[in-house]
Write a structure and sequence with these properties.
With about 400 residues, the protein is of the alpha/beta class. It folds into 2 domains: about 5-185, 3-Layer(aba) Sandwich (Rossmann fold), CATH 3.40.50; about 190-404, 3-Layer(aba) Sandwich (Rossmann fold). Helix content is about 35%, strand content about 25%. It has 14 helices and 19 strands. The chain has helices spanning about 20-30, 50-55, 65-70, 75-80, 90-100, 105-115, 125-130, 130-145, 170-190, 220-230, 260-270, 310-315, 335-345, 385-404, and strands spanning about 5-10, 35-40, 85-90, 120, 145-150, 150-155, 160-165, 195-200, 205-210, 210-215, 235-240, 255, 275-280, 285, 305-310, 325-330, 350-355, 365-375, 375-385. The protein has an 8-stranded mixed beta sheet with strand order 12-11-8-13-16-17-18-19, with helices on both faces. The chain is elongated, with a radius of gyration of 26 Å. The structure holds cytidine-5'-monophosphate. Cytidine-5'-monophosphate binds near residues 278, 309 and 329.
Amino acid sequence: MNLQHKNILLGISGGIASYKACELVRRLRDAGAEVRVVMTDNATRFITPLTLQALSGHPVRVSLWDENHEAAMGHIELARWADAILIAPASADVMARLAAGMADDLLTTLCLASEAPMLLAPAMNRIMWAHPATQANAQTLHQRGASILGPAAGSQACGETGEGRMLEAVDLVKQLADVLACRVDKRSASTLHGKRVVITAGATREAIDPVRFISNRSSGRMGYAVAEAARDAGAEVVLISGVTHLPTPPGIRRIDVETALQMRTAVLQAMPCDIFIATAAVADYRPADPATQKIKKHADTLSIELIKNPDILSEVAALERRPFSVGFAAETEHLLEHARDKLQRKNLDLIAANRVGEGLAFDQLDNALSVLWADGQIELAHTDKSTLARQLIQIITERLESHA
Ligand code: C5P
């Protein structure tokens, strides 16, 4: 476990597990980290700042209003200094305050003021941990990018047995080292820094009448995975999303639309950009004249006249300041022929083709892609959509560079 030259801000909140923070400081320092400790007021009722000062080698901070400390290293400076913030133990209360975005003490203020990765090691009575409020707060923090480490199951200080024990110091140090190593990997792969990427995702809905619509089986998962991969490569991402049940990935601007026409307007408003990736399953046709009232089932047959929707991707690829344009082709047969035809017809730089049909691609967690461009092709083997998305972003980046 290597934390050489890493600045770790250790937050300790109130809970009996705070005694384990002493060993944690030792282990962090053994792994090469520089450790500064911030305690909540409640934590000081379980363990003294003096103990942690002796172990960390630095004065421990508790209050936001300590003039001497603020003069030495102000709280914003401390927030910038941190390569990671680890809160161990993280009480139900500190998680609730963080989830609510509060900054009512030094520790929560630092968390709000820092862009460093945040890791939380919850420790509490098993019923408190299982409470829907705590679970919802943990989920919120996780969705915003925090790593929730544990808790483990076992006997608790309160005499109960169950989930809620803080992970052991050695496990916390290992997980922290993993998170930081992963960030370094991402940073070195940050090849889309300064690039603006617009992505469409999900299915459109075209109204037949006020209660019915035409749509398709797209879940939006592939597009959302591509958006996350582009964000992780350092891009500024705008995700123009049709109807899906997926949560908004942190760090991504999401614009919700319903129909193909709304998607077109949102896409054109988001231009110019460097890369446009159209993963959305846009309805090719829409009812020509949607009924204003619910259609009654009087007749034995019913015809709905459909008219063609504008092709958003072709339109973007034809713009004067055209971005690097990437399309998706979902086909049930003649996959590669159709994909190559689309590549040319829509004037694309790249196309990702996938076979769809019974149990394939749509609404599935896995997929496989054939990626084609004017003079090349790569097969991406069957795997989960986030792995595929990262591979696709890598190919796009390489193609983009060879274009420049
Ligand atoms: O022609 P086809 O619908 O198969 O093309 C698929 C590609 O074109 C996808 O990238 C899709 O997001 C995009 N598309 C679009 N607007 C449409 C239809 C498809 O942007 N109206």
